[in-house]
Amino acid sequence: MLGTYLENVRRAVPLVHNITNYVTVNDVANVLLACGASPIMSDEPRDVADITAICGGLNINIGTLNERTIKGMFTAGKKANELGHPILLDPVGAGASALRTDTSIRLMEELELTVIRGNISEIKTLALGSGTTKGVDADAADAVTEENLDRTVAFAKEFAKKSRCIVAVTGEIDLVSDGAACYVIRNGRPEMEKVTGTGCQLSGMMTAFIAANPEKHLESAAAAVCAMGLAGEIGWSRMEEGDGNSAYRNRIIDAVYNMDAEVLDKGAKYEVR
């Protein structure tokens, strides 16, 4: 069951190197602590190789991209590959600008990635080489729905095969595929879209899950998606009068902190295709 992968994170306490965006860096650190991992942040090119060397996984998030951090991403990524550490790429806003799109594609081409996690518009941009996004949000026209689910599952599988890594497409319906199988996940709340950085938090947490479960990258990536979505459901159920998106952010992180294997196993909503 998926709860095992959460237990393994808490047992291993993996140190995760995050090159993440400045908007959500604190929330990423806190959700990593909440799930049982340990975060460290570094994007300085002269620092990242040493930091990655002492970590168990690397989370690359391009949300606030600049030339200095781009250099840091490639330096850290090459060191992580040299050491056999898993790497997750979160191509935030790919399709919104040439720099974001080109950098994401270069990272895919030059690094051996373990997981690519993004919304459907970002993933389509990487698959096709160009695309459109609503800033850092998915284009409504790209949304994964019950009506296009079979077609989108086939797309996720094909892109995972082509990329030779796990592809995690997150949205109203989440897909996690290694090219052979695809987890279709229906956890979460629509209100999570009103909290900045839930996707960034998931990328950090997913990096911890794959680092702590080296033989089960597909299953642990799916477990991380279920855990984040379930935390959104639990957090929303605890909202009180006068609460807003700031309180909801904290309740989501608290729900991760208090989640155990039994809660995750009971609350995870998924099928495998």
Q: Span between N and C termini?
A: 17 Å
CATH superfamily label: Ribokinase
Strand order of the largest sheet: 2-1-3-4-5-6-7-8-9
Q: What is the CATH level 1 assignment?
A: Alpha Beta
Descriptive overview:
- The protein has a nine-stranded mixed beta sheet, with helices on both faces.
- By secondary structure, it is α/β, with parallel strands linked by helices.
- It has helices spanning 3-12, 25-35, 48-53, 67-83, 98-110, 120-128, 149-163, 198-212, 217-237, 245-258, 261-267, and strands at 15-19, 38-41, 57-61, 87-90, 115-118, 166-169, 174-177, 182-185, 270-272.
- A hairpin with a 4-residue loop joins strand 7 (174-177) and strand 8 (182-185).
- The radius of gyration is 17 Å and the shape is globular.
- The protein has a single domain (3-272), classed as Ribokinase (UDP-N-acetylmuramoyl-L-alanine:D-glutamate ligase, 3-Layer(aba) Sandwich).
- Mean pLDDT is 95; it is low at 134-138.
- It is built from eleven helices and nine strands.
Features:
nine-stranded mixed beta sheet; 11 helices; alpha/beta; single chain; UDP-N-acetylmuramoyl-L-alanine:D-glutamate ligase; 273 residues
Short characterization:
This protein has 273 residues and is an alpha/beta fold.
